[in-house]
TrEMBL record:
Transmembrane segments: 12-32, 44-64, 76-95, 115-131, 143-160, 166-183, 188-207, 276-293, 305-323, 343-363
Species the sequence originates in: Ornithinimicrobium tianjinense
Recorded topology in the membrane: Multi-pass membrane protein
Phosphoprotein among keywords: no
Gene Ontology terms: cellular component: cell division site; plasma membrane
Biological or metabolic pathway of the protein: Cell wall biogenesis; peptidoglycan biosynthesis
Superkingdom of the source species: Bacteria
Class of this enzyme: transferase
PANTHER family reported for this sequence: CELL CYCLE PROTEIN
Primary location: membrane
Gene Ontology BP annotations: cell division; regulation of cell shape
Name of protein: peptidoglycan glycosyltransferase
Length: 371
């Protein structure tokens, strides 16, 4: 093994990988619990395979020089954007009212919006860090370019429509622009722009009626008592019935009774709340919080703008997605269909989340080795 690679592996914060692996393994158990009666262990095994592939790719990123990552950032961004364009063509497939999937040969499927998050993280970091002194804030031209670059995938995702993923990209962009040192007015412009996009998506309307019902039922569950209103009530009942220690894996009455649709994806947190209890559910949230906090720490300690912005972008992405998913399970946020990182079933989401961990580890190498 080359000495440089050995040094990189020795200096890597493997706690990130251990936490992500632990979440992935618990996710497989939760997926198994909610799908075992219908498909046996098939989805749980697939969940583990997806996690293994993602983990290998994340470890591979540890060996990548952050300068090489910055060099290929435009191509990663373009690849993610191209995938979003493809789903709007006849090649795209509609699932649950959103034309956001590509079905590949061999029975595989891909959701380009998940990989677009990776592309936007590195794309924004490149634009706001390229060729400038770390002590100089970005110029207005650089910030405007960054917002233009972010607007393209956000608009393409809204056309699917997929409000949840568009919100993640918006929050991610706000965080990266703020962390770049840009003037505060640009952060406010970013917040207003994201809020405007959400309002337009709801009022035009760009959203499918099924998705709009989800948002309206958050305000008044009685508007859809047999659909999403019923579903969210069942989710809260499942979480509330778990108590402190839960009913035990595979023993939750709501989970095993099949009262909650999409429980292995959107509402996997309800399985944790019912069968692992309050303590187990809080433990999972703390592990996710550790990943977010560690990404932010890497960003704060980095003296290299590109690595700092990559780490902050990943932290904002995982943090907001966790907040939204847990919030919609608890009835504190509208249902948007966002998966819970590492825990929800879904190959595209799992791959993107593991790649995000690899990006943080790659960004971390620069500041650690240079000390």
């Amino acid at each position: 093994m080359p000495p440089a690679l050995r040094e990189r592996l020795a200096r890597t914060d493997w706690g990130l990988f251990v936490a992500a692996l632990g979440l992935s393994l618990v996710g497989a158990l939760l997926v198994w619990s909610t799908t075992r009666d219908s498909v046996g262990a098939a989805l749980a095994v697939r969940h583990l395979v997806n996690a293994a592939v993602g983990a290998v790719l994340a470890v591979a990123l540890v060996a990548v020089d952050v300068r090489w990552l910055r060099a290929v950032a435009p191509w990663v961004y373009l690849a993610g954007t191209a995938g979003l364009v493809l789903v709007l063509t006849p090649l795209g497939q509609t699932v649950n009212g959103s034309r956001s999937w590509l079905f590949l040969p061999g029975g595989f499927s891909l959701q380009p919006a998940e990989l677009a998050k990776i592309g936007l993280v590195v794309g924004l970091a490149m634009i706001l860090a390229e060729g400038r002194d770390p002590l100089r804030p970005p110029l207005w031209r650089e910030v405007l370019t960054a917002w233009t670059v972010a607007a393209v995938p956000v608009l393409l995702i809204l056309l699917q429509p997929d409000l949840g993923s568009a919100l993640v990209l918006g929050v991610l962009t706000v965080a990266v622009v703020a962390a770049s040192g840009a003037a505060a007015r640009w952060t406010w412009v970013a917040v207003v722009g994201t809020a405007t996009a959400v309002v337009l998506a709801v009022t035009l309307p760009l959203l499918d009626p099924y998705q709009l019902d989800r948002l309206l039922a958050f305000r008044d569950p009685d508007l859809d008592p047999q659909g999403i209103g019923y579903q969210t009530r069942q989710v809260r009942l499942a979480i509330g019935s778990g108590g402190w220690t839960g009913t035990g894996l595979g023993e939750g009455p709501h989970t095993q009774g099949g009262f909650i649709p999409f429980q292995h994806t959107d509402f996997i947190f309800s399985v944790a709340g019912e069968e692992l209890g309050w303590l187990g559910a809080v433990g999972l949230v703390l592990l996710l919080g550790f990943l977010v906090l560690r990404a932010m720490v890497v960003g704060l300690r980095s003296d290299e703008p590109f690595g700092r912005l990559v780490a902050v972008g990943v932290g904002a992405w995982l943090g907001f997605q966790t907040f939204e998913n847990v919030g919609m399970n608890l009835g504190l946020m509208p249902v948007t269909g966002l998966p819970l990182p590492f825990l929800s079933y879904g190959g595209s989401s799992m791959l993107a989340c593991w790649l995000a961990i690899g990006l943080v580890a790659c960004a971390q190498q620069r500041w650690r080795v240079s000390r």
